[in-house]
Amino acid sequence: MVFTFILFYIIIAVLLYFGYKDLFIPLVGLIFLFGALFVLFVSHISYVTLHDLVRTTASKNQLKKKNDELAQYARLISHDLKSPLRNIGSFAQILKKECADKMTDESEECLDIIINSSQNMYKMLEELSVHNKLKTGNEKLVLNPVNLNTVIKEVLFSIQRTIKEENVEFDVQQNLPNIQANPVKLKLVFQNLIDNAIKYNRNSKKLIKIYARNNEYFTIISITDNGIGIEEKYHEKIFKVFERLHGKNEFSGTGIGLANVFELIEQFGGKITVDSIPEKGSTFNIHFPII
């Protein structure tokens, strides 16, 4: 449409230059006609754009409202279920202790199932509550340079008993770079990833390597293990809530840990990916913005 106006102005200029004044008035009429059409066209586009913008804004507000309601519902469910679950587990333990001499093997097994199930559900609700807070927290997260070597040392110190019992050997790069993060939440990230590297490993000697490298935009921290590995089709699925690739009888856990890790790393402005070969091991790569 704009090019049409330009063309008309060029034609008018040429006609006036060569003295064709008789054609001037019809051309002016055509210009006004096209001008009116152009105004209508722009008005229509503006209306459609504004309408879409209003509809999108309303949809976002509605979506936010629904998300807030779901978050509130999750908090209430988590809080209301914890108390009865705790009571069920406690009473089952009391019953097992008080009636130990009167119980059959089958009844004792049933009580053990009740106790373990209530404990697992309680733990799941706690982790779900943590995940909900991470996902819906409104407070502005303050990020500061954090010494990664210090964080790793603190995590390994807190699980030194597990390291000894599971026969885990660590190879941690010296002088790891500082990371722009929250130190408490960064520690939670590595606790989850190291815990998984130990848990999902059937080897008599478990090996975990932690090292760093840079590309143009990110500092990449990699955690490599010699565990059971993950099939490629599950590489994205494992970061979603309650997504478990193995039965509880095979490996313990709630399926929320990696979802929490994903949320935390996004809060740091980074991302996490995984490279893995089944039965060979996995490498979790955390991309932190370079500081």
Describe this structure in words.
The chain is of the alpha+beta class. The protein has helices spanning 2-18, 24-98, 105-136, 148-158, 160-165, 183-199, 257-267, and strands at residues 144-147, 168-172, 178-181, 206-214, 218-225, 271-277, 281-289. It contains seven helices and seven strands, in the order H-H-H-E-H-H-E-E-H-E-E-H-E-E. The strands form two sheets. A five-stranded mixed sheet has the order 2-4-5-7-6. Strands 1-3 form a two-stranded antiparallel ribbon. A hairpin with a 3-residue loop joins strand 6 and strand 7 (281-289).
List keywords for this structure.
291 residues; single chain; 2 domains; Heat Shock Protein 90; alpha+beta
Give the helices and strands, then pairings.
Layout lengths: L1 H17 L5 H75 L6 H32 L7 E4 H11 L1 H6 L2 E5 L5 E4 L1 H17 L6 E9 L3 E8 L31 H11 L3 E7 L3 E9 L2
Parallel strand pairs: 2-4
Antiparallel strand pairs: 1-3, 4-5, 5-7, 6-7
Helix pairs in contact: 1-2, 2-3, 3-7, 4-6, 6-7
